[in-house]
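User: Some background: our group keeps a shared notebook of sequences we're curious about, and every so often someone picks one and asks for a predicted structure to add to the entry. Today it's my turn. The entry only has the sequence so far, pasted here. Could you supply the structure so I can complete it?
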Amino acid sequence: MKPNNFILAALCVACLYSCEQPVGVLQTSTGVTIQYPDQLEGVEVLEENLIFTNAATGEETDVPVRERFSLPEGLYNCVYTATITYRTTSEGATNRPAEGEAGDAHTQQPETVSREGRLSGKLEAVEITGGQPVTLTIETFLIGANDDFVIQEIFFTGTLRPSGSQYYGDSYIKIYNNTDHVLYADGLAICESRFKSTQYFDYTPDIRRDTFTVWAVYVIPGSGTDHPVQPGGSLLICDTGIDHRNANPNSFDLSGADFEWYDISTEPDNMDINSPTVPDMDKWYCYTKSFWVLHNRGFCSYALARIPEDKETYLRDYYYTYEYTQYLPAGVFPMQQSAYKIPNAWIVDGVNCSVEAARVWDVLPASIDAGWTHCGTIDHDKTRYFKSVRRKVAGFEDGRCILQDMDNSIEDFNTECIPSVIEEQGTAIDAQGTKAATRTWDGVMPME
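Assistant: Of course. Here's the predicted structure to add to the notebook entry:
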C-alpha cells in the first residue's frame, strides 16, 4: 500500500527541553503528519530531519521525527527534510519487428524504476498556545529535480559612488545551464514578486499555494533555438548594458552582457538607457511607468518561468485582482489591488530573498524554494552594497561545474558575496574603490 502519510504519534518520554525554559511557560505536546507527494510510490525514508525555529528568538530545536515532542508556547517556523527511495513507472514504448522479421508491432510493458531523492517541506508562523496537544501537517515536495536553467547569481544591492551615494542601473541576474545537455533560453521569463517578504496580509482570493503573483515579467526573445547555452554555460542578464564606469568609477562594464531589460519610460525625468550593444528582453509587463530596478534591499523573490501562452493570451487570462485588510493606527482600511500571476507549474527555478530583521514570510512556496537568502541583516543595511547572492558549487564532472540545487536557498546560496562580474573585471568592492583581488567559483570556493 502506498504510504501517503504517517502520523508521528509516540508519547514523549520526558518534558523535553523543559529544564531550559522559564518557569511558567506552557509546554505543548506536538506531533506532525508528513504528507508525501501524490506522484511518488513505495516511499522509504533513509534519513530525515525536523527543525522548529522560534520566530521571536531564532532558537532552533531539532525534534524527533517519529515521536511526539514538547514545545514551549510561541510562534514557530518548521522545516522537514528527508532522503528517500521511491518508485516510478516508465511509459510503455512501441516495439516494431526488425526489417525482414515476422511479427506484429507490440507495446512494451511499463517498467518500474527505483530512484533515490530528497524531500522538503515547511510550515511558517505556526502558533503553539495553551498547552493543548496539537498535530500539524507538513506537505512535502521532491527537490533537486530541475532539468532547466537555474538562477546562478542575483546582484540586487547595487554599487556606491565615491561620494557614498547609491548608484542604479548595474544590477544583474545570472542564469546557468546545470544540466548535461544544451538548453535554449528562448522564451525564458524572469519574474519579480509583487508581494514582499517583509509584509504579510491575508490576500483574497488566496492563490499562493499554486500561483506566483508578479509585477514584472521580462522574456528572452527567440523562436525556440536562437539562444543555445552549453552545459556549464551561463547568461548574464542586466538592467542596463553599458560600461557603468563612465558614470560611476566604482561600478563595472556590462556592455558585453547577453540581454538587458529595457523600459520605454512615460516619465520624462526618469528615462531608461537602451544599450546599443546588448539585446533587449521582451517586456511583457511591469508595474513602473519609468524603469524597473531590482529591489535593492532584497525584499522580493525572483523566478525563471517557461510561459506556454503567447503574450496577448497571457496578459488577457492571467490578471489577478485581490483584496486584503490593512490595519493602521488611523483605522481599518479594506484594500484592492491587481497584478499578474504565474502558475507554479511554469516555474523552473525560484529564489526567496529577504533580510533577517524584517522578514515575515517566504513569498515562493516550499515546492519552489524551501528557504531564503540575503545581502545584509537589517533593513537599509549599509554594508549590503557591492554584494550578491551566489549559488554554491556542489562539485565538478568532466571539468564542468555542478551547482547545488536543493530547492532551498538557505542551503543552495552563499550570501553577501563579491559579485562574479566584479571579480572577473577586478573592479571596486567598496565606495573607497578597493579593487577585487581574487576570483571564486561561487563567492567562496577559490579558482585555482
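Suggested note for the entry: Residues 389 and 415 are 5 Å apart (CA to CA). The first helix runs from residue 311 to 317.
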